[in-house]
Amino acid sequence: MRQQARMRKPSAYKHHGNYFVRIFNKARKSVVSIRTLNHEDVDWGNPFFNLQPRETEGIGTGFFINRKGIILTGEHVVNKAKQVTVKLYNGKSHLGKVLWSDPIRDIALIQINSPKTPLPLPLGSSGKSKVGEWVMSIGNPLGLEHSITTGVISATNRTFAFSNSDKVFENIIQTDCAINPGSSGGPLINLNGQVIGMNAFVVKDNQGLGFAIGAAHLEARNTRPKLYCFYIKIMESLEKAFIRMTQKTMR
């Protein structure tokens, strides 16, 4: 009887669909949609160069990493953006400020000024991720907010180079989760609800071939991004120095 009872015990992976429902409900508030406004560069070889440059819009995804309004996203999402608009799960939009960006790692930090932000998503360890592990992606494909796709980790520690760029991605995660335009910068989440990667890009004309930047490049001690910690420490020091200077001036 005991053996039969053990055999009837459901497997966590057998019912992974239920896990995705719970994970999405917990994570959705922390994921944001990003829209950018850009000005196309003027072509000085064009006889009509004196016309106003045309404005273009871009879309992407990001997610909160702390309660101070700091959002992690892809550098290419906000690259050369004149204006960044962040839309929260409740439909409210805020102007975003690009705090820092790294075109080599394709990582950027933006911040919104909001009195209350959702809980940050916990960062896991991409180094512990295994091939075949179930994962979920949340993104903003083609402007369709909070869309999820599911799949597995197809491979780890991949290296990918673009033929038309000097950019080389190393130690990235390969997944068959659908990563469409607009999903870049969104989280790749495991069944524990932890972010193990950030959606980066998908190879065109190849279904089921998406790539994510591993959490190992995003996290540091206490599961916080290294660059965020460095930035906050610097900004807090400057803020304290400014307050002291202001107080002395007012005396």
TrEMBL record:
| Record keywords, A-Z | Hydrolase, Protease, Serine protease
Q: Which GO terms describe its biological process?
A: proteolysis
- Any one GO MF annotation of this record: serine-type endopeptidase activity
Q: Tell me what this protein is called.
A: Putative serine protease HtrA
Q: Which organism is it from?
A: Paenibacillus larvae subsp. larvae
Gene that this polypeptide is encoded by: htrA_2
